Amino acid sequence: MSEARIDVQVEHKHAPPPVEKKHPNTCPKCGSHYRDDELEQTLWVCGHCGHHFPMRARARIDWYADDGSFLEEATEVRSDDPLDFFDLRPYAERLAEAELNTGLGEAVVIGQATIGGHPVELAVMDFSFMGGSMGSAVGEKFSRACDSAIDRGVPLVSVTSSGGARMQEGILSLMQLPKTVCAVEDLHDARLPMLTVMAHPTTAGVLASFASLGDVTIAEPGALIAFTGPRVVQQTTRERLPDDFGLAEQNLRFGHLDAILPRSEQLEHLSRLLRLFA
Amino acid sequence: MTDRDHELTLRQRLSGLSRLPLLRGVRVDGEADRLRAQLVRLNADTTDETIWHSVELARHVDRPYTMDYVARMLDDWVELHGDRGRADDGALVTGLAQLDGRTVVLLGHQKGRDVKERLDRQFGMAYPEGYHKAMRVMEIAERFGFPVISLIDTPGAYPGVAAEQHGQGGAIARSQAEMARLTVPTVACVIGEGGSGGAVAIAVADRVLMQENAIYSVITPEGCAAILWRDAGEAKKAAAAFKPDALHCLELGVIDGVVAEPAGGAQLDHDEAARLLKAALVESLEELEDTPGEELRRRRRAKFRGMGVFA
């Protein structure tokens, strides 16, 4: 055994130094560290530099919805594994793990609620469930949210946070783009508004479908909003990227957003819009 | 799904296929035979190779592109240029023409034949301007009641700095929304690579067809391998896992029919490939033309809203 040992020192001499894994409660921008209850009080925003930490779907719903008004829908919808997909690990296993780790059935939570007294339908994505990726179940739940809004004649408030389509469902995940687009078109035919809040990150298949179709679109500060992310653009085109490439700030400058709002201002803004559309 | 169930669905699909009026004009028997042969190959568990063969044929340098079909299938072709805002995108061509005696609007991705044309057309990867042009031309179709024919052949939408700044994601979303609103018959066919959002942007059609050796996928095999296997060299494995070939797309209910190609692939006989494609497009249009526009739109949306498999 001991003779066969390989000198790993040599092999790793040129390897990059291991990335220091920061605690999720440590601000990646300024290094401030917070207790869970501190972050909860500040809506997961860094008190020093204003960095917006990722916000879980349930926490956001508790915050947006008037107390006790939220009634969740489509709780039974789960992803299936139509391709028996197996990369380094089986898709079925990844799904089970995501459900255990997040306590969510899928990467989006939908339901009825009131915001500032206005009845709405909510569809809130959660990035911690497989990167918020959109497979058949996410597409179905979002579409049902549109239907529920139509049935009750109320606006849809949609919060997006997603890495894109869920590759493990192959072409069926791509079909969730036209599926959710058709659902939004049905909502628009019923003359009901969709208000979209883009959280970090809103990319690829979700940006190229329902996320971009809001009547009013606001984004959180610093959110990545891009069809193709900076790493892939850099690798494919070897172009020099602007410093704020793909960020909400650039998207606002180029006319793709109505506003960038910190969390502290979002609820008042949404309530005002709901009054205007009422 | 167990192997047994899988085979059963495939067989059901096949039996449905032989009755499909859509494919009558393209020799359904020959087509069914070929698919049956594919089924045998699937059963023989050589899916990796079969699927990879499709990927190679779909990207074959001699494969006919949109303009090759335009020249062979359409009369009185008038190309329409520019998005009326910023640019003319050569990766996505649009125009008016006659197909079998009726005026149609044609949209199609266009790759290039030589190095210069490939660069000019960005290898068939459209900028947002390309989709803006498509939307503007769809409006013409809607206003004058022209059917829309859409030929899809792109590795994906262009992944560049300017493309992002000009709103690639939003353009793809709005192009789909425009197609979901049309009240004219729409037929799309994947004639090579149906790559991700860049493809589906112009594929929200009443009838979506795929040529026998075309592929339609959420990401390129290389991209999928790079992300899930952390090695772009595993593209073959990735393709086998996400199954972008026509038969699997048909089985999953993503497309409505498969268009036969000349034996050995469309690259071997452009004229015959165009004849077969034209027959399938005309056949599909004839099926749709008597349906009122509102009903077409309702059914189109219902079709796409029914897509997906979940528990």
Description of the molecule:
Chain A starts with 7 loop residues before the first helix and ends with a helix. Chain A has 2 domains: 1-53, no CATH class; 54-277, 2-enoyl-CoA Hydratase, Chain A, domain 1 (Alpha-Beta Complex), CATH 3.90.226.10. Chain A has helices spanning 8-11, 36-41, 57-64, 91-102, 136-152, 170-174, 176-189, 204-207, 230-237, 248-253, 263-277, and strands at 71-73, 108-115, 118-125, 156-162, 194-203, 216-219, 225-226, 259-260. Helix content of chain A is 36%, strand content 16%. Chain B has 311 residues and is of the alpha/beta class. Chain B has one domain (46-299): 2-enoyl-CoA Hydratase, Chain A, domain 1 (Alpha-Beta Complex), CATH 3.90.226.10. In chain B, 50% of the residues lie in helices and 16% in strands. Chain B is built from 14 helices and 8 strands. In chain B, strands 1, 2, 3, 4, 5, 6, 7 and 8 form an 8-stranded mixed β-sheet that branches. The interface between A and B is large, with 64 and 53 residues.
Q: Average the pLDDT over all residues of chain B and give the rounded result.
A: 89
Largest sheet of chain B: 8 strands, mixed
CATH class of the largest domain in chain A: Alpha Beta
Radius of gyration of chain A over all CA atoms, rounded? 20 Å
Number of strands of chain B: 8
Secondary structure tally, helices of chain A: 11
Which secondary-structure class do the elements of chain B indicate?
A: alpha/beta
| Coarse shape of chain A | globular
Hey, which two chains have the biggest interface?
A-B, 64 and 53 residues
Order of helices and strands of chain B: HHHHEEEHHEHHEHEEHHHEHH
CATH fold annotation of the largest domain in chain A = 2-enoyl-CoA Hydratase, Chain A, domain 1
Rg of chain B, nearest Å: 18 Å
What is the name of the CATH architecture of chain B?
Answer: Alpha-Beta Complex
Spell out the CATH superfamily of chain B: 2-enoyl-CoA Hydratase, Chain A, domain 1
Reading the helices and strands of chain A in chain order gives: HHHEHEEHEHHEHEEHHEH
Give the helix level of chain A as a range of percent: 25-40%
Annotated CATH homologous superfamily of the largest domain in chain A: 2-enoyl-CoA Hydratase, Chain A, domain 1
